[in-house]
Amino acid sequence: MAKKKPVLTALDKKIKGYVQKILTTDEGLLDELVIDLKNREASQAVNDGKGDFDTLHNVADQSASSLNNEGVEAQIRYLISSLGEGGAFKQIEEALNG
């Protein structure tokens, strides 16, 4: 029995397109976006009284490092989950266009 090919959604196809663009441009292109966003989330948590600055930002840096090590697709999916599809793709386009 032949294996079925997975059906890609429009979002999956768009992500794959961005992955290809990024890999041919600069594989580390999204690293800073992920780090910045994780630290913005940590700052918001500090402002909301959820912990102290140093602890939350250390956790954010560790989380960003781990996520960046997972690769471009994981980075894009994280950006989408945090910024929404439109916001994520806007940030990615800006990074690609320098």
Could you please describe the fold and organization of this structure?
The chain is mainly α and 98 residues long. The chain has one domain. Helices cover 77% and strands 0% of the residues. It is elongated and about 55 Å long. It starts with 9 loop residues before the first helix and ends with a helix.
Summarize the structure.
The protein has 98 residues and is mainly alpha-helical. It has helices at residues 10-25, 31-47, 53-69, 72-96.
Detail the topology: elements first, then pairings.
Blueprint: H1 10-25, H2 31-47, H3 53-69, H4 72-96
Helix pairs in contact: 1-4, 2-3, 2-4
Which key terms come to mind for this protein?
mainly alpha, elongated, 98 residues
Count of discrete domains: 1
What integer is the average pLDDT?
91
| Helicity, as a percent range | over 70%
User: Span between N and C termini?
Assistant: 48 Å
**Low-pLDDT segments, ≥5 res:** none
State the total count of DSSP E strands: 0
Categorize the overall geometry.
elongated
Largest sheet: none
Structural class assignment? mainly alpha
H/E order of the elements? HHHH
CA radius of gyration is 16 Å
Q: Which band does the percent of strand residues land in?
A: under 5%
Number of distinct helices: 4
